[in-house]
Inverse folding.
Protein backbone atom coordinates (compact mmCIF):
# COMPACT_ATOMS: atom_id res chain seq x y z
CA UNK A 1 0.00 0.00 0.00
CA UNK A 2 1.54 3.26 -1.05
CA UNK A 3 1.35 6.18 1.30
CA UNK A 4 1.67 9.90 0.85
CA UNK A 5 2.76 12.26 3.61
CA UNK A 6 0.73 15.45 3.20
CA UNK A 7 2.37 17.18 6.15
CA UNK A 8 1.42 20.72 6.90
CA UNK A 9 5.01 21.09 7.95
CA UNK A 10 8.11 19.13 8.84
CA UNK A 11 9.62 18.40 12.17
CA UNK A 12 12.53 20.64 11.67
CA UNK A 13 12.27 23.90 13.46
CA UNK A 14 11.74 27.19 11.77
CA UNK A 15 14.74 29.46 11.82
CA UNK A 16 17.15 26.72 10.75
CA UNK A 17 19.74 26.85 8.03
CA UNK A 18 22.82 25.09 6.74
CA UNK A 19 26.39 25.82 7.69
CA UNK A 20 27.01 27.51 4.35
CA UNK A 21 24.55 30.24 5.22
CA UNK A 22 26.51 30.92 8.40
CA UNK A 23 29.96 30.67 6.82
CA UNK A 24 30.65 34.35 7.47
CA UNK A 25 31.56 34.97 11.11
CA UNK A 26 28.96 36.92 12.99
CA UNK A 27 30.74 39.71 14.83
CA UNK A 28 28.05 39.81 17.50
CA UNK A 29 28.35 36.06 18.09
CA UNK A 30 32.12 35.78 17.92
CA UNK A 31 33.23 38.97 19.64
CA UNK A 32 34.05 37.16 22.91
CA UNK A 33 35.38 33.71 23.66
CA UNK A 34 32.77 31.44 25.23
CA UNK A 35 35.65 29.59 26.89
CA UNK A 36 35.48 32.10 29.72
CA UNK A 37 32.32 30.32 30.90
CA UNK A 38 33.85 26.85 30.99
CA UNK A 39 33.64 25.47 34.51
CA UNK A 40 31.41 28.33 35.62
CA UNK A 41 28.05 27.16 36.94
CA UNK A 42 25.11 29.18 35.70
CA UNK A 43 22.56 30.72 38.04
CA UNK A 44 19.64 30.09 35.69
CA UNK A 45 18.89 27.13 33.41
CA UNK A 46 16.47 27.16 30.48
CA UNK A 47 15.51 23.71 29.21
CA UNK A 48 14.68 23.65 25.50
CA UNK A 49 13.83 20.97 22.97
CA UNK A 50 13.76 20.55 19.20
CA UNK A 51 13.10 17.72 16.76
CA UNK A 52 16.44 18.46 15.09
CA UNK A 53 19.01 15.68 15.58
CA UNK A 54 22.23 16.19 17.51
CA UNK A 55 25.11 17.05 15.23
CA UNK A 56 22.84 18.28 12.45
CA UNK A 57 23.34 21.66 10.86
CA UNK A 58 20.21 22.86 12.63
CA UNK A 59 21.48 21.73 16.00
CA UNK A 60 24.72 23.56 15.34
CA UNK A 61 22.85 26.85 15.07
CA UNK A 62 20.90 26.27 18.27
CA UNK A 63 24.17 25.56 20.06
CA UNK A 64 25.45 28.92 18.79
CA UNK A 65 22.33 30.59 20.11
CA UNK A 66 22.89 28.98 23.52
CA UNK A 67 26.51 30.09 23.57
CA UNK A 68 25.50 33.63 22.71
CA UNK A 69 23.00 33.71 25.59
CA UNK A 70 25.63 32.25 27.94
CA UNK A 71 28.22 34.82 26.96
CA UNK A 72 25.93 37.85 26.98
CA UNK A 73 24.59 36.90 30.41
CA UNK A 74 28.17 36.81 31.71
CA UNK A 75 27.83 33.03 32.19
CA UNK A 76 24.72 33.41 34.37
CA UNK A 77 22.16 31.81 31.98
CA UNK A 78 22.57 28.37 30.42
CA UNK A 79 20.25 27.12 27.69
CA UNK A 80 20.15 23.32 27.66
CA UNK A 81 18.98 21.72 24.40
CA UNK A 82 17.49 18.25 23.97
CA UNK A 83 17.70 16.87 20.41
CA UNK A 84 15.41 14.56 18.42
CA UNK A 85 12.50 15.74 20.53
CA UNK A 86 13.88 13.62 23.34
CA UNK A 87 12.25 10.71 21.52
CA UNK A 88 8.87 12.45 21.56
CA UNK A 89 6.95 14.76 19.23
CA UNK A 90 6.04 18.45 19.28
CA UNK A 91 2.71 17.80 20.98
CA UNK A 92 4.68 16.38 23.90
CA UNK A 93 6.84 19.52 23.93
CA UNK A 94 3.77 21.67 24.44
CA UNK A 95 2.48 19.39 27.17
CA UNK A 96 5.84 19.49 28.95
CA UNK A 97 6.01 23.29 28.75
CA UNK A 98 2.54 23.50 30.25
CA UNK A 99 3.55 21.17 33.10
CA UNK A 100 6.76 23.10 33.75
CA UNK A 101 9.19 20.29 32.91
CA UNK A 102 10.27 22.13 29.73
CA UNK A 103 10.91 25.87 29.37
CA UNK A 104 10.96 26.43 25.63
CA UNK A 105 11.13 24.83 22.20
CA UNK A 106 11.93 25.43 18.56
CA UNK A 107 8.82 24.20 16.79
CA UNK A 108 7.07 24.06 13.47
CA UNK A 109 3.62 25.54 12.96
CA UNK A 110 2.05 22.14 13.71
CA UNK A 111 3.56 22.21 17.19
CA UNK A 112 2.77 25.89 17.65
CA UNK A 113 -0.83 25.21 16.66
CA UNK A 114 -1.16 22.99 19.71
CA UNK A 115 -0.83 26.22 21.69
CA UNK A 116 -2.66 28.57 19.33
CA UNK A 117 -4.66 26.63 16.75
CA UNK A 118 -4.87 29.63 14.43
CA UNK A 119 -1.13 29.30 13.74
CA UNK A 120 -1.89 26.64 11.14
CA UNK A 121 -3.68 29.16 8.95
CA UNK A 122 -0.33 30.04 7.34
CA UNK A 123 -0.09 26.46 6.07
CA UNK A 124 -3.41 26.38 4.27
CA UNK A 125 -2.71 24.97 0.79
CA UNK A 126 -2.38 27.49 -1.99
CA UNK A 127 -2.83 30.44 0.38
CA UNK A 128 0.33 32.20 -0.80
CA UNK A 129 1.88 32.43 -4.26
CA UNK A 130 5.29 33.49 -2.97
CA UNK A 131 7.27 34.40 0.14
CA UNK A 132 6.50 38.11 -0.24
CA UNK A 133 2.79 37.45 0.19
CA UNK A 134 3.44 35.39 3.29
CA UNK A 135 5.68 38.11 4.73
CA UNK A 136 2.98 40.73 4.32
CA UNK A 137 0.30 38.66 6.02
CA UNK A 138 2.56 37.37 8.78
CA UNK A 139 3.78 40.87 9.63
CA UNK A 140 0.23 42.19 9.64
CA UNK A 141 -0.88 39.44 12.03
CA UNK A 142 2.13 39.55 14.33
CA UNK A 143 0.37 41.44 17.10
CA UNK A 144 -2.63 39.11 16.90
CA UNK A 145 -0.52 35.99 17.40
CA UNK A 146 1.74 37.46 20.08
CA UNK A 147 -1.40 38.31 22.03
CA UNK A 148 -2.86 34.84 21.56
CA UNK A 149 0.34 33.14 22.75
CA UNK A 150 0.57 35.49 25.71
CA UNK A 151 -3.00 34.68 26.67
CA UNK A 152 -2.15 30.96 26.54
CA UNK A 153 0.81 31.44 28.88
CA UNK A 154 3.56 31.43 26.24
CA UNK A 155 5.86 33.88 24.51
CA UNK A 156 6.32 33.64 20.75
CA UNK A 157 9.89 34.87 20.70
CA UNK A 158 10.82 34.57 17.05
CA UNK A 159 9.44 33.31 13.77
CA UNK A 160 11.16 31.86 10.73
CA UNK A 161 10.79 29.72 7.65
CA UNK A 162 11.28 26.02 6.93
CA UNK A 163 10.79 26.17 3.18
CA UNK A 164 8.43 26.08 0.20
CA UNK A 165 6.95 22.58 0.02
CA UNK A 166 7.16 20.52 -3.16
CA UNK A 167 5.66 17.20 -4.18
CA UNK A 168 8.28 14.45 -4.49
CA UNK A 169 8.01 10.70 -4.90
CA UNK A 170 10.04 7.51 -4.65
CA UNK A 171 8.30 5.16 -7.11
CA UNK A 172 10.14 3.89 -10.20
CA UNK A 173 6.89 3.44 -12.13
CA UNK A 174 5.78 6.25 -14.37
CA UNK A 175 2.08 5.80 -13.60
CA UNK A 176 2.70 6.36 -9.89
CA UNK A 177 3.86 9.91 -10.49
CA UNK A 178 1.56 12.36 -8.76
CA UNK A 179 1.15 15.06 -11.39
CA UNK A 180 -2.56 15.65 -10.73
CA UNK A 181 -4.89 15.40 -7.69
CA UNK A 182 -6.94 12.62 -9.29
CA UNK A 183 -4.01 10.26 -8.71
CA UNK A 184 -4.59 10.51 -4.96
CA UNK A 185 -7.78 8.49 -5.09
CA UNK A 186 -6.28 5.07 -5.76
CA UNK A 187 -3.47 5.20 -3.21
CA UNK A 188 -3.17 4.53 0.51
CA UNK A 189 -2.23 7.87 2.05
CA UNK A 190 -0.79 9.28 5.27
CA UNK A 191 -0.43 12.64 6.99
CA UNK A 192 1.51 13.95 9.97
CA UNK A 193 -0.10 13.34 13.35
CA UNK A 194 -1.46 16.58 14.75
CA UNK A 195 -2.03 18.19 11.35
CA UNK A 196 -5.63 19.09 10.56
CA UNK A 197 -4.94 20.29 6.99
CA UNK A 198 -3.65 17.04 5.47
CA UNK A 199 -6.73 14.96 6.39
CA UNK A 200 -9.09 17.60 5.01
CA UNK A 201 -7.14 17.85 1.75
CA UNK A 202 -7.30 14.08 1.28
CA UNK A 203 -10.99 14.00 2.15
CA UNK A 204 -11.65 16.78 -0.35
CA UNK A 205 -9.75 14.85 -3.01
CA UNK A 206 -11.87 11.77 -2.37
CA UNK A 207 -9.04 9.94 -0.66
CA UNK A 208 -8.33 8.86 2.90
CA UNK A 209 -5.23 8.43 5.02
CA UNK A 210 -3.77 7.50 8.38
CA UNK A 211 -1.58 9.51 10.72
CA UNK A 212 2.17 8.88 10.98
CA UNK A 213 4.69 10.39 13.34
CA UNK A 214 7.64 12.46 12.18
CA UNK A 215 10.08 9.83 13.37
CA UNK A 216 8.45 7.16 11.20
CA UNK A 217 9.19 8.87 7.89
CA UNK A 218 12.79 7.76 7.35
CA UNK A 219 12.06 4.09 7.97
CA UNK A 220 8.94 4.02 5.80
CA UNK A 221 10.08 6.25 2.95
CA UNK A 222 10.40 4.27 -0.26
CA UNK A 223 8.33 1.47 1.29
CA UNK A 224 4.89 2.31 2.65
CA UNK A 225 5.49 6.02 2.07
CA UNK A 226 6.20 6.77 -1.57
CA UNK A 227 5.31 10.45 -1.88
CA UNK A 228 6.36 13.42 0.24
CA UNK A 229 5.01 16.95 0.34
CA UNK A 230 7.89 18.74 2.03
CA UNK A 231 10.33 21.65 1.77
CA UNK A 232 13.27 20.42 -0.37
CA UNK A 233 15.89 21.81 1.99
CA UNK A 234 14.58 19.65 4.82
CA UNK A 235 14.38 16.59 2.56
CA UNK A 236 17.97 17.13 1.47
CA UNK A 237 19.42 17.73 4.92
CA UNK A 238 17.49 14.91 6.62
CA UNK A 239 18.56 12.42 3.97
CA UNK A 240 15.05 11.80 2.64
CA UNK A 241 15.92 13.03 -0.84
CA UNK A 242 18.24 10.05 -1.38
CA UNK A 243 15.12 7.96 -1.95
CA UNK A 244 13.31 10.50 -4.14
CA UNK A 245 13.02 9.61 -7.84
CA UNK A 246 10.78 12.34 -9.20
CA UNK A 247 9.65 15.87 -8.43
CA UNK A 248 6.74 18.01 -9.57
CA UNK A 249 7.74 21.52 -10.61
CA UNK A 250 5.43 24.52 -10.74
CA UNK A 251 3.22 23.59 -7.77
CA UNK A 252 3.90 24.78 -4.20
CA UNK A 253 1.26 23.30 -1.88
CA UNK A 254 2.26 25.46 1.10
CA UNK A 255 5.00 27.58 2.65
CA UNK A 256 6.21 26.01 5.89
CA UNK A 257 6.96 28.23 8.89
CA UNK A 258 7.55 27.90 12.62
CA UNK A 259 9.13 29.66 15.56
CA UNK A 260 10.79 29.66 18.96
CA UNK A 261 8.42 29.67 21.91
CA UNK A 262 8.98 29.93 25.66
CA UNK A 263 6.91 29.30 28.74
CA UNK A 264 5.82 32.73 29.95
CA UNK A 265 6.18 31.73 33.59
CA UNK A 266 9.78 30.63 33.02
CA UNK A 267 10.80 33.88 31.37
CA UNK A 268 8.96 35.94 33.98
CA UNK A 269 10.95 34.11 36.64
CA UNK A 270 14.25 35.33 35.20
CA UNK A 271 15.82 38.68 36.05
CA UNK A 272 14.41 41.29 33.68
CA UNK A 273 17.65 41.92 31.82
CA UNK A 274 18.06 38.21 31.01
CA UNK A 275 14.50 37.86 29.80
CA UNK A 276 14.91 40.85 27.51
CA UNK A 277 18.25 39.56 26.23
CA UNK A 278 16.91 36.09 25.40
CA UNK A 279 13.88 37.44 23.57
CA UNK A 280 15.99 39.93 21.65
CA UNK A 281 18.46 37.26 20.52
CA UNK A 282 15.65 34.88 19.52
CA UNK A 283 13.96 37.57 17.45
CA UNK A 284 17.20 38.56 15.72
CA UNK A 285 17.99 34.93 14.98
CA UNK A 286 14.71 34.53 13.14
CA UNK A 287 15.19 37.76 11.21
CA UNK A 288 18.68 36.76 10.06
CA UNK A 289 17.43 33.48 8.68
CA UNK A 290 14.47 34.82 6.72
CA UNK A 291 16.46 35.22 3.51
CA UNK A 292 19.06 32.50 3.92
CA UNK A 293 16.65 29.63 4.47
CA UNK A 294 14.72 30.56 1.36
CA UNK A 295 17.88 30.56 -0.74
CA UNK A 296 18.91 27.22 0.74
CA UNK A 297 15.49 25.75 0.04
CA UNK A 298 15.44 26.92 -3.59
CA UNK A 299 18.94 25.57 -4.09
CA UNK A 300 18.01 22.25 -2.53
CA UNK A 301 15.13 21.83 -4.97
CA UNK A 302 17.52 22.29 -7.89
CA UNK A 303 19.90 19.71 -6.42
CA UNK A 304 17.13 17.16 -5.84
CA UNK A 305 15.67 17.74 -9.31
CA UNK A 306 19.05 17.22 -10.96
CA UNK A 307 19.66 14.03 -9.00
CA UNK A 308 16.26 12.66 -9.99
CA UNK A 309 16.89 13.37 -13.65
CA UNK A 310 20.31 11.73 -13.46
CA UNK A 311 18.86 8.66 -11.76
CA UNK A 312 16.38 8.21 -14.60
CA UNK A 313 19.01 8.78 -17.26
CA UNK A 314 21.27 6.11 -15.78
CA UNK A 315 18.57 3.66 -14.77
CA UNK A 316 17.83 0.89 -17.26
CA UNK A 317 14.77 -0.37 -15.39
CA UNK A 318 11.45 0.41 -17.02
CA UNK A 319 8.11 1.39 -15.60
CA UNK A 320 4.95 -0.66 -15.94
CA UNK A 321 4.04 1.01 -19.22
CA UNK A 322 7.43 0.56 -20.76
CA UNK A 323 9.08 3.81 -19.72
CA UNK A 324 11.20 4.83 -16.79
CA UNK A 325 9.97 7.56 -14.46
CA UNK A 326 10.62 11.03 -15.84
CA UNK A 327 12.69 12.40 -12.94
CA UNK A 328 10.93 15.77 -13.04
CA UNK A 329 7.77 17.15 -14.51
CA UNK A 330 6.72 20.73 -15.23
CA UNK A 331 3.07 21.02 -14.27
CA UNK A 332 0.90 22.10 -17.19
CA UNK A 333 -1.56 24.96 -16.82
CA UNK A 334 -4.39 22.41 -16.61
CA UNK A 335 -2.61 20.45 -13.88
CA UNK A 336 -1.90 23.63 -11.91
CA UNK A 337 -5.57 24.54 -12.21
CA UNK A 338 -6.57 21.12 -10.82
CA UNK A 339 -4.29 21.54 -7.81
CA UNK A 340 -5.47 25.11 -7.23
CA UNK A 341 -9.08 23.95 -7.25
CA UNK A 342 -8.30 21.26 -4.67
CA UNK A 343 -6.41 23.78 -2.53
CA UNK A 344 -9.28 26.29 -2.68
CA UNK A 345 -11.84 23.67 -1.74
CA UNK A 346 -9.65 22.50 1.14
CA UNK A 347 -9.29 26.05 2.48
CA UNK A 348 -13.05 26.53 2.35
CA UNK A 349 -13.58 23.23 4.12
CA UNK A 350 -11.33 24.33 6.98
CA UNK A 351 -12.90 27.76 7.47
CA UNK A 352 -14.63 26.80 10.71
CA UNK A 353 -11.34 25.60 12.22
CA UNK A 354 -10.00 29.15 12.55
CA UNK A 355 -11.01 32.40 14.19
CA UNK A 356 -13.69 33.95 11.98
CA UNK A 357 -12.02 37.38 11.97
CA UNK A 358 -8.58 35.93 11.20
CA UNK A 359 -9.92 33.79 8.35
CA UNK A 360 -11.70 36.83 6.96
CA UNK A 361 -8.49 38.90 6.95
CA UNK A 362 -6.04 36.24 5.81
CA UNK A 363 -8.17 34.27 3.37
CA UNK A 364 -11.46 35.88 2.32
CA UNK A 365 -10.30 39.50 2.07
CA UNK A 366 -7.36 38.37 -0.05
CA UNK A 367 -9.64 36.63 -2.53
CA UNK A 368 -8.47 33.18 -1.51
Amino acid sequence: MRKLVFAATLAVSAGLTSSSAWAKPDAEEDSDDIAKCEGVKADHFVKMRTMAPKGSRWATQFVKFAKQVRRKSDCKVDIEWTWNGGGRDEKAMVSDMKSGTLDGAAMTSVGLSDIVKDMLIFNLPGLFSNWAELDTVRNNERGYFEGKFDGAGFVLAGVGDVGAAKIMGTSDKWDDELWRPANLKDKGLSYISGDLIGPKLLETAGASGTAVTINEISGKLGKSITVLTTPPYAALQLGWSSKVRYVLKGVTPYFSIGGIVFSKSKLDGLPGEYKTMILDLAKKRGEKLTGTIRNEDAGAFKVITKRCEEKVKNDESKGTAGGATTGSHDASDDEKSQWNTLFQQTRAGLKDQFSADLYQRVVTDRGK
Remarks:
- Residues 7-25, 318-322 have pLDDT under 50 and may be disordered.
- The CA atoms of residues 174 and 321 lie 7 Å apart.
